[in-house]
Amino acid sequence: MEKRYHSVRLEKDLCKGCTNCLRHCPTEAIRVRGGRAHILDTLCIDCGECIRVCDYHAKVAVTDTLEDIRAFKYKIALPAPSLYGQFRGLRKIEYVLEALKRIGFDDVFEVARGADVVTRAIRERLREPNMPRPLISSACPAVVRLIQVRFPELIDHIVDIRQPMEVAASIARAEFCRRTQAAPEEVGCFFITPCPAKMTVIKRPIGQTKSELDGAISMMELYGLLLPHVEKLQGDPDFRLSTGFGVGWATSSGEAIAVCPENSLSVDGIPNVIRVLEEVENGKLNDLVYLECNACMGGCVGGPLAFENSYVARNAIRKLVDAMPRVHPDSDVPPSMLTKYHTKNNAPIQPNDAVRLDDNMAEAMRKMTRMNEIMARLPGYDCGSCGSPTCRTFAEDIVRGHCTEMDCIHVLKEKLKIMAQQMVELAQSKRE
């Protein structure tokens, strides 16, 4: 099977096999075998939860570096709006945009402007009849991959509009080439990302055949380079800015407020997202029109690659938005933008078939029967000491041939207890 690209990686030399990541992975994609964690390539959604909880820093996110932009003659930075929240006391968004040019980019295009276009596109979509209810945001790739793995029956609920960073890259490259007469292949578009899932979705797109972006650079890597410029800049750098609604996408509920404030729900944090998606799956939230889901607490400002405390960053974004004119994307984005640039998906979102026990249905049923038999013998503690997150996944791992029942310390203890008793009885019978 071809190995899938993932931004989240394991530093094996740092891993202590503590099972902390095992218990927090939302898709049960981690196993501990031989005293080291292993990330299952087929189930990982690059949410970064393991990065947050690893006390030994054995989980890392691999992104592009500033050196990588030199592969292109022209370089465009596409900052996520959450980047603005990293700078305490930021007076003007323009200072961050100008600082990006000063560290090596030829042009800067706000992803918040892409969010404005996406806002209008989704609102147009919601006006169409027979849309599933609720329609689920596609902005967070970790959530979309979560749906592919755990809630495949909800795939049709995912709105078929591209992520803001993809739309922003499409516009940025086209506008830059029009102004400078540069060839599109000479222009590299790089997203300044707060999370590893965005890096992964650039390399392995969802809902489109190829990403409009050429890479992503971690906010953590650029923060130290940007800060001196942001603090020293004065005046009014000349940039075409997004609306406050577009900047608001950086925090939880910002998207819902822009898209559908009347009848929407915002949820952040993977455990909370899972609970709400279970409600949708069970048909309990059909009265909702729109559902915004963020894998990170607080929204993108809470991403594992962000520098600033998420609460501080969220407050900074709120202050910036409050100071901006309350112009809605419906009036700021002309209808022609929705057809002039790529705003809709061009490939179907497929369920993740990695959870299948076997491609052959009869064999899969046989394995399922054996798996249930094994589960009936297990204690049901879900302690993770076997190296699998739950007794159910442990039974599945046994069926797949990755371990044996004796890897469960409780089963082993009981087995040893029985063997010890048998030895005592055997010794007594010999004496008699």
The number of distinct helices, counting runs of at least 4 residues, comes to 17
Our measurement of the CA-to-CA distance between the termini, rounded to an integer number of angstroms, reads 60 Å
- Whole-angstrom Rg: 25 Å
How would a textbook summarize the main sheet?
A: 4 strands, parallel
Order of helices and strands: EHEEHEEHEHEHHEHEHHHEHEHHHHHH
pLDDT < 50 stretches: none
The secondary-structure class comes to: alpha/beta
Beta-strand segment tally:
11
Q: Major sheet: order of its strands? A: 6-5-8-9
Count of all domains: 3
Mean pLDDT: 94
Q: What general outline do the C-alpha atoms trace?
A: elongated
| Helix content class | 40-55%
What is the beta-strand fraction?
A: 5-15%
Care to give the gist of this entry?
The chain is α/β, with parallel strands linked by helices and 432 residues long. It has 17 helices and 11 strands.
Spell out the key features of this protein:
single chain; 432 residues; alpha/beta; Alpha-Beta Plaits; 3 domains; 4-stranded parallel sheet; 3-stranded parallel sheet; 10% strand; elongated
What does this structure look like?
With 432 residues, this protein is of the alpha/beta class. It has three domains: 1-62, Alpha-Beta Plaits; 66-340, no CATH class; 357-432, no CATH class. Helix content is 41%, strand content 10%. The N and C termini lie far apart (60 Å). The model has no long low-confidence stretch (mean pLDDT 94).
